Amino acid sequence: MAPEMKALNSTKQAHRRLLRRDIQVKELLTELAVVLLQAGITPKHFGELAKQAFVEAAGTLSKFRNGKINRSRVAVMTGLSRVEVKRLLSGQFSMTASIPAQQSRGERVISGWMTDHRFLDGRGRPQRLPIAGTRASFTSLVRKFGGDVPHRAVLEELRRLRVVRQVGDSLELDARRQLPSGHASASLSTLIPVLIDGIRLAEKAASSGADPQIHRLTLTARDQLELARLQDRAAAGIGSLLNGLRESLQRGMATAEGKKLALTVTAFVAQQPMDKGRLR
Q1: Is there a contact between 146 and 105 (Cβ–Cβ < 8 Å)?
Q2: What would the pLDDT profile of 232-242 be if each residue is shown by its tens digit?
Q3: Contact between residue 214 and residue 198 where contact means Cβ atoms under 8 Å apart
Q4: 65-97, pLDDT tens digit by residue?
Q5: pLDDT in tens, 21-56
Q6: Which of 13, 58, 110, 144 is most buried, by the most CB atoms less than 10 A from its CB?
Q7: Under a CB-based contact definition with an 8 Å cutoff, are residues 113 and 166 in contact?
Q8: Farthest-apart Cα atoms in the chain, separation
Q9: b/e map 16-30, b = 16+ CB within 10 Å
Q10: Secondary-structure breakdown of the chain: helix, strand, coil percentages, each rounded to the nearest 5
Q11: Which sign does the torsion angle of CA 244, 250, 255, 260 carry?
Q12: Contact 33/41 with Cβ under 8 angstroms?
């Protein structure tokens, strides 16, 4: 094969690898975004957190012998400017900075409803608002705090979150409900440690050349009833397995007091969607 053809094939293969990488990362982020949106994290907020995380990660890989971080190399690795890298590394990033800009439109509307005197009653509580109108209405509230989206789109989202109640042609804010929901935050708290464990295993395997200690088993079912039975039996089996592991592996060992290291075994049962006739 001619050198030119070899170079062309190598370029095409590299392009396909990058394309597969981007598709896989996007698939991961799409699934994660479902949970993040429920927890009230917007793309802009996520972007700020991501920049901080990328800079910190690049900093661990870009240190001089004296331990100081090579900011220029961090800028090269992340694509950020040196000024931005310096700001993020100096600790000027704040988790609560520019909260209004990072909030979703629904959160901004709720916040305005609860704080702006034009939408409060005599006791300082969010008043019942007519849906339409030029003054002290839900439409004017969205126009002031929701940006360039129609008030009906915001209303549909607040209804989905069950934070508003319609009474005739007016709306009441259910102040007992909070944005984001506690359930979403709890789901995120459960998800993050599992993701971190998997990522660390994959990174360790990539750096050492060993196979990652991640084991997956896929079971197929003919219908929903059989799938439900499989799921119940798998969950019960995993529970018994983990309890047996704890009893057999910790038998004869000292108590947890004074120990500095830990081994975590995580297992969960998840239904997988069928994709083009095969399991993902």
Answers
A1: yes
A2: 999 999 999 99
A3: yes
A4: 898 999 999 999 999 999 999 999 887 555 544
A5: 999 999 999 988 988 887 778 888 899 899 999 999
A6: 110
A7: no
A8: 84
A9: eeeeeeeeeeeeeee
A10: 60, 5, 35
A11: negative
A12: no
Q: Which stretches in the chain have pLDDT values below 70? A: 1, 92-102, 175-185, 252, 254-258, 274-280
Residue linked to tokens 């209405």: 137
Place of tokens 């990539």: 206
Count of Cβ atoms closer than 10 Å to residue 184 Cβ: 19
Residue 54 neighbours by CB under 8 Å, 6+ apart: 78, 80
Tokens of 67: 């331990």
* 160's tokens: 């989905």
Residue type, 37: L
Q: Tell me the two tokens of residue 100.
A: 């209004």
CB 266 within 8 A of CB 200: no
Contacts of 138 (CB under 8 A, 6+ apart): 129, 130, 131, 132, 151, 155, 171
Q: What is the pTM (predicted TM-score) of this model?
A: 0.64
1, two tokens: 């094969």
